[in-house]
Amino acid sequence: MVVYINTQGAKIVREGRHLLVKKDNDICHTLFTYKLKQIVIFGNVEITHQAMIQIMRHEIDTILLTRNGRYLGRIASPESRNVFLHKRQYALLEDPVFSVKMASAIVGGKLTNMATLLMRIKRSRDAEIAGRKAREIQDLMPLLSKATSVDSVRGYEGRASALYFEAFASGFIERQNFTRRVRRPPTDPVNSILSLLYTFLMNRIYAAVRIAGLDPYPGFLHSIDYGRYSLILDLMEEFRTIIADTLALSLFNLKILQQHDFYEEKPEEENELGEETTQQPMADVSKDPIGWISGTDADSVTFDIPEQRMNDGVAARPVGKYPVKLHPEAFKRVIESFEKKLTTEFYYPPAERSLTYADALIFQAAHYRKVIEGEANVYQPVLLK
To answer: Does domain 85-373 correspond to CATH entry 1.20.120.920?
Structure first.
């Protein structure tokens, strides 16, 4: 069970074997520690000493984020004690053949998923640019298979990502001023949501890596650096499109999020967050056909989709220089939709049964470990079909 706490000014306290989330004299939530796998805390939320002891005793991974979702740190039990596995992870970093093979497998999965999603957008939106960019990404696959260095693999990944985001905007019914990927800071609603969803995804993959007993720092695609979770970033690549990007499309196209759910944070407005209080039934993101992992036939896509086009030239500059962020009520809807997405099931070939996306993250981390230990020959990413 993963719990998100974003009630500003709340306090997490211990009561017997349980944890309570309280604000003033009101109890907002009761948390049963034996059910908890992860607590994600946003902004000004206090944890008492006794609650901290309870969290650590039960080894509950606790993530600390800013109010708007920027990662700060985590409270976690000690890392895996399997020093021999960790030693092998670092030793393989010095093996250029293994490194290229692993990085190529990770990027191959990412490229395949990006091309597949763009082809779905092309069919469902009648967006010619999406089909064209998908084919250009597919044309990189033979070159990727011949790469002889990790730097070459990274180059193909960078080129494919640029092609992908040139066409990704055509998947939205309303583009929300999105023209290209802008991260620091995100300057339009789509980029704001992508950054937030990628943060959520990173935290879940970190938890999966800990379950697998792996060291989160040494990766093959992302170069190692001081404090960089390179392995986490590697394992994120195949799931960015599958989970985060498809969910972003659903959130906007199903109108779970709309323009009034966002605000531009200008210096004089940094501490003046508007509250969106309008409540409405929320669409089910797990029913969005464009996000299904097995895909659908073109004729069975039921969206009411107007034709969308995008300039074929270089992506435009960001429309604003200030960060675009979510109002609190909309933020809660994103959290709910993300968790709903992770409970969606699909057929997972390695297990020969259906799994949720959340379970697939754990299975993929375990599969990665098998490749490191030599029990599997090559890493097989999860693919959209």
So the answer is: yes
